[in-house]
Design a protein that fits this description.
CATH topology of the largest domain in chain B: D-Maltodextrin-Binding Protein, domain 2
Number of domains of chain B: 2
Number of strands of chain A: 2
Radius of gyration of chain B: 24 Å
Radius of gyration of chain A: 25 Å
Distance between the termini of chain B: 86 Å
CATH architecture of the largest domain in chain A: Orthogonal Bundle
Strand content of chain A: under 5%
Structural class of chain A: mainly alpha
Oligomer: heterodimer
CATH superfamily of the largest domain in chain B: Periplasmic binding protein-like II
Order of helices and strands of chain A: HEEHHHHHHHHHHH
Helix content of chain A: over 70%
Strand content of chain B: 5-15%
Number of helices of chain B: 18
CATH superfamily of the largest domain in chain A: MetI-like
CATH class of the largest domain in chain B: Alpha Beta
Number of strands of chain B: 14
């Protein structure tokens, strides 16, 4: 009896494996193989010409990147600054909006839809809209500052290497805050109402309720939001490409735009492959660190 | 006081006649001036076509306007008609989304003339096209006809054996202005037809210049003086789109053309920078960079120029806020689209950046190189050749040119139906250099950072620091 059950299980698992095969094949061909072959290409130097033989250079691409490539180091720094700004402000604003818009009333649903709206636009459209807004001579932003008497704040937003990255970060926050807000609303709606009632009975203020009930209960959602936002900032290719193309003087260059430039304009495929390896390692490390920090925090509570 | 009906009708008639004459006279007046070689002409720049037999109205040594020969070498042979195409379907890959409608109409006629043939346009924007065309076309044999940019991209296709030798095709030897074939010729063999004859020189608002009594600057001192005059008048002298690298780099052509005593020196200097033998701190380059700074100091550029992009610049020029749009003949269509009233008011001048006798007076470029895919089947290659031979017919090239405000490299094309093409044609009578900016073949590692540096300097950045920093970047790029 037991034998036949085992046989059935074995049979079942074979069927299950067989059923997973199509999905796994697609995954293997489209993701696994390119990812693994990318590791190999990262140790080569090749100009993309099928007539020329790739040269194996070992770890030279990696050592060169960190010792001799100022633009790469600058891009890495830009990416970290961009990430930090966007993670802080996007998470902050989305949580703030979500706490006010958790309840399902006509007004809150309308406002949620309104805030979510930018998310459904394509990145290129968002880039073009903000390009017009930021125009130093005719844009709405500078026109508003001038009209309000703040002439000194009417800056050359995207044309000055001191401000361009911050201007892009503002656009990115505007673009995705609504999306993160929706995730937060879902998380907040899961918090049992009794916890707030108990806190109110204990005489907790609104801030205390947020600090001792909302924040700890919403930490798992925050972990998702922060991780997702981080990844978003590392792949903000289209926005950067449309608005500044990495300029002025590489001040808004991030790793993905640099990889694109090296591979498709510089024809340095091996070097670009090595940079993608660094990108993956960096994103994985940051995400792991964030999740660890937030989980620990949650555990202590 | 009542005005009678007949008086009203008379007024309307006079107004109508005036409007009609105002529209027709400037165009017909010049053409009506019998264009005989050496005879007087009245409208500088008017011409009768682009073959070497065409005439153009230019100033002679005594400063008199006379009909002269256009200095273009033609094929010198009788053009041949388009070859017949076998039935089948191919793709035509290019980057000119703005030409889609015109090409659709041309393709429909080609298909009607060759039953069973289907040509589908595959269009990407120019930046994506530069980045991905080689990979896409190499793996797609159906992409039997494609275009490449002169310089880096054509070079990449050639190195990858992705262009077919068409040297002996009769439409190549007979229908194309032979000097225009240079960018697609390697070791005496022709691998494509550069369909576009571009003129990468500043466009100016001739109407505004006439009304303000301004003279087109003919040397460096006059150029800086003009900037000060125009700025004092509240006009942006040069609507330089510095935030859009592609078009911001067009004036580099003008700076390069007179940066050395001869062409060989210009070419050698480019090679030296690309090979890392010299850097941007070289005296000649620093001298050129200083001129960008001088232009900035003289108020030539708009405020916040490094944030001034190429969607704003043509509009400023089209709406009379700017006097000069320093890009090229390809910029005309965006200007007239922004303001149809600019039709017939745009002219072109060679930007001279020296006070000495200039080596060259203007820039030309031959690009949009039409080639046949060697990976395609022989039947598809035959269709591709037939299609290119069809595009190389003067009547077809005329339709394309008039519809897109774009000169072509095809002989015997009559441009008179497009007043803007006629108006910028006087540049053809000058000593032109094939755009030297494209001598830089290493776009990502050398040309882009170099142009970024010049843009920053044009925006007021320190010359020495910017050139030193960028030289270091280029050195690192070349060592990767």
């Amino acid at each position: 009896m037991r034998k036949s059950k085992n046989m059935i299980r074995r049979g079942e698992s074979k069927v299950l494996l067989l059923m997973a095969l199509p999905a796994f094949s697609i995954y293997a061909v489209l993701y696994l193989y390119p990812a693994l072959s990318n590791l190999l290409w990262a140790t080569r130097r090749w100009d993309g010409n099928p007539e020329s033989e790739p040269e194996t250079v070992g770890f030279r691409n990696f050592t060169y990147m960190f010792s001799n490539d100022d633009v790469f180091i600058q891009s890495l720094g830009n990416n970290f600054r961009f990430m930090l700004l966007v993670v802080i402000f996007q998470t902050g604003f989305s949580l703030l909006f979500a706490t006010y818009l958790t309840k399902n009333t006509r007004t809150t649903i309308f406002l949620r839809t309104l805030y979510f709206f930018p998310t459904i636009l394509s990145s290129v459209s968002v880039g073009l809209i903000w390009l017009a807004l930021y125009d130093p001579n005719y844009g709405f932003i500078n026109a508003s500052f001038k009209a309000l008497g703040f002439e000194s704040l009417a800056l050359n937003w995207l044309g000055d290497s001191r401000y361009a990255l911050y201007a892009l970060a503002v656009t990115q926050v505007w673009f995705h805050t609504g999306q993160m807000m929706v995730i937060y609303v879902a998380g907040l709606q899961q918090i049992p109402q009794e916890l707030y009632e108990a806190a109110q009975v204990d005489g907790a203020s609104r801030w205390q309720q947020f600090k001792h009930v909302t924040w700890p209960m919403v930490l798992p959602t925050t972990a998702v939001v922060v991780a997702y936002t981080t990844i978003q900032t590392f792949r903000a290719f289209d926005l950067v490409y449309t608005m500044t193309n990495g300029g002025p003087l590489n001040s808004t260059e991030i790793i993905v735009t640099l990889i694109y430039r090296n591979a498709f304009f510089g024809y340095q495929y091996g070097y670009a492959a090595a940079q993608t390896v660094v990108l993956v390692v960096v994103v994985l490390s940051i995400t792991w660190l964030q999740r660890r920090t937030l989980r620990l925090d949650y555990g202590v509570k | 006081m009542k005005v009678s009906k007949s008086a009203k009708a008379f007024k309307l008639l006079v107004a109508g006649a005036f409007a009609l004459s105002a529209t027709i006279v400037p165009i017909s007046g010049a053409i009506a001036n019998t264009p005989n070689l050496g005879a007087k002409c009245t409208d500088e720049g008017m011409n009768t076509g682009t073959t070497s037999r065409s005439l153009i109205c230019v100033k002679n040594d005594r400063g008199e306007l006379r009909w002269a020969r256009v200095k273009l070498s033609s094929s010198g042979k009788s053009p041949v008609s388009a070859s017949r195409s076998p039935a089948g379907s191919i793709e035509f890959h290019h980057w000119r989304g703005e030409d889609k409608t015109v090409f659709d109409a041309i393709i429909a006629k080609f298909e009607a003339a060759n039953p069973g043939v289907k040509v589908t346009q595959v269009i990407k924007d120019s930046t994506s096209y530069q980045a991905t065309a080689l990979t896409t076309i190499r793996s797609n044999p159906k992409a039997a006809v494609f275009t490449t940019f002169r310089g880096g991209q054509f070079n990449d296709f050639f190195k990858a054996n992705m262009v077919t030798d068409i040297t002996n095709q009769r439409f190549v030897t007979n229908n194309v202005i032979q000097s225009a074939l240079a960018p697609a010729t390697v070791a005496g063999k022709v691998y494509g037809i550069p369909y576009h004859s571009l003129f990468n020189n500043p466009l100016y608002n001739a109407d505004m210049f006439a009304k303000k009594g301004w003279k087109v600057p003919k040397n460096w001192t006059q150029l800086l003086a003009f900037c000060k005059t125009a700025k004092a008048d509240g006009i942006i002298p040069f609507a330089w789109p510095a935030a859009t690298r592609g078009n911001a780099g067009q004036i580099l052509n003008s700076f390069l053309m007179n940066s050395a005593p001869d062409l060989a020196t210009i070419e050698q200097r480019v090679i030296d920078i690309e090979s890392g033998k010299a850097d941007l701190n070289s005296a000649w380059f620093k001298d050129m960079a200083n001129k960008y700074k001088q232009m900035n100091d003289a108020g030539c550029f708009p405020n916040n120029v490094t944030g001034y992009n190429d969607s704003v610049a043509p509009v400023d020029f089209a709406t009379g806020k700017a006097a000069i749009y320093p890009t090229g003949s390809f910029g005309i269509s965006s200007v007239t689209k922004a303001n149809p009233d600019m039709k017939g008011k745009i002219k072109m001048f060679g930007m001279i950046t020296t006070d000495d006798k200039p080596l060259y007076e203007g820039i030309t470029n031959n690009t949009f190189i039409l080639s046949v895919n060697p990976k395609s089947t022989s039947r598809d290659q035959q269709i591709a050749r037939a299609f290119i031979s069809y595009l190389a017919q003067a009547s077809v090239a005329r339709e394309y040119a008039v519809g897109t405000s774009q000169h072509t490299s095809i002989v015997n094309v009559d441009y008179s139906a497009n007043v803007d093409l006629l108006n910028v044609s006087d540049i053809m009578g000058k000593k032109l250099l094939l755009a030297p900016r494209f001598l830089f073949l290493n776009v990502a590692q050398v040309r882009d950072p170099m142009e970024d540096a010049l843009i920053a300097i044009g925006g007021g950045a320190d010359v020495n620091k910017t050139l030193t920093d960028t030289s270091a970047k280029i050195k690192q790029n070349l060592g990767k």
